[in-house]
Amino acid sequence: MASEVKVPTLGESVTEATIGEWLKKPGEAVALDEPIASLETDKVAVEVPAPIAGTMGAYKAEVGDTVEVGAVIATIEEGQAQAGPENTRPRGGEEPAASESEKEIEALPAEEPFDGGATLSPAVRRAVLEHGVDPTTIKGTGKDGRLTKEDVLAAAKAKKDGPAPSTSAPAPAPAAAPAPAAKGERREERVRMTRLRQTIAKRLKGAQEEAALLTTFNDVDMSAVIEARAAYKDVFAKKHNIKLGFMSFFAKASCLALKDVPSVNAKIEGDEIVYHDYVDLSVAVSAPNGLVVPVVRSVDQMSFAEIELAIAEYGQKAKDGTLTMADMAGGTFTISNGGVFGSLMSTPIINPPQSAVLGLHRIEDRPVAVNGQVVIKPMMYIALSYDHRIIDGREAVTALKIIKEAIEDPMRMLIDL
């Protein structure tokens, strides 16, 4: 008897997704709740679990197809198929103990960017990390040249086995490499935009068209924060098992500013302005599929360590492709750190329906005047983009000035100034 596999509920207001990859082939053994497909939604990649144990049946949709919530995308036949080495699982629902490689994957630093920037499904990302292969060196066999889990496993096997031993039979001729482009030849490549990239494009364009965007700038002397980190980073890491970063300082400083200038933490709904007495901080994180913005809830009530731990957890989830719709729902204010990529200055775009976003940039030594003397200081440009419909220029400048003063004198964050 066949059981239908349907598109699961994807989150509030999300009604459809795109088939990103099939993780099981027809005829393969499938365990209960084992991922069989990866779906791309507007915000995250979602794995579809098997509703029963059995044998993978026929596909009802192909990679690249758009499917609605509740639609049937495949069938699973009850009964057990002949299990190969890749689809054998322990009986009784017990999972094997984590291998050393899995433990290493869990311990990877959240701030380490995924190499290559390719669009990879969660299953492919896990396989790449587990087997330690470079995805940029593997030719994808999926739709539009995408990597599949089988591509990664084949590359890992080839890497492990090394050159095949010589035999009396002649070795097959290697596949011909694509001819290099002739001098002066110009080529083009067309790659369909992922659903996430399409959504990013629509939201950013929509923000520009609807909001009255304006950006105000300031610069910050980072000396005090750098000295504080240097003095306490070791004891902080030992006590809290997390590094003390710059983001927690700017999160705390932003909370002071949003408390004193509530319109920067507000939003427009119809003909009303909604003010929040809490701060749900959206933190822009670079993920393999594009920019994602998970939300740290009630950041105004959190300690420095709690903020760093929450951001590190989201960074790891973004890298692994395990962020959920709930992780990114809401948010009252955003911080985007372009400085990690070397940006000197930018005009960030707000994240609707929010009304403001703080942009951070790289720190560099610059000559500044202090008490009539020119000295070298570690300086950072900061930018606040805001919706001029509800935030006046005076309020935006005041909020950014409060952030600047708190960073230059961190004691203000301790005594609520």
Structure explained in plain terms:
This protein has 10 helices and 19 strands. The longest helix has 18 residues, at 223-240. The protein is globular, with a radius of gyration of 25 Å. It is of the alpha+beta class and 417 residues long. It has 3 domains: 2-93, RNA polymerase II/Efflux pump adaptor protein, barrel-sandwich hybrid domain (OB fold (Dihydrolipoamide Acetyltransferase, E2P), Beta Barrel); 100-161, Dihydrolipoamide Transferase, CATH 4.10.320.10; 197-414, 2-Layer Sandwich (Chloramphenicol Acetyltransferase), CATH 3.30.559. It has helices spanning 100-106, 122-131, 149-161, 195-210, 223-240, 246-260, 304-320, 325-328, 393-408, 411-414, and strands spanning 2-6, 16-22, 29-30, 35-40, 45-49, 54-59, 66-68, 72-78, 213-221, 267-269, 272-274, 281-283, 285-287, 290-292, 295-296, 333-337, 356-360, 363-370, 373-387.
Q: What would the keywords be for this entry?
A:
single chain, alpha+beta, OB fold (Dihydrolipoamide Acetyltransferase, E2P), Dihydrolipoamide Transferase, Chloramphenicol Acetyltransferase, four-stranded antiparallel sheet, 10 helices, globular
Entry summary:
The protein is an alpha+beta fold and 417 residues long. The protein is 29% helix and 24% strand. The protein folds into three domains: 92 residues, RNA polymerase II/Efflux pump adaptor protein, barrel-sandwich hybrid domain (OB fold (Dihydrolipoamide Acetyltransferase, E2P)), CATH 2.40.50; 62 residues, Dihydrolipoamide Transferase, CATH 4.10.320; 218 residues, 2-Layer Sandwich (Chloramphenicol Acetyltransferase).
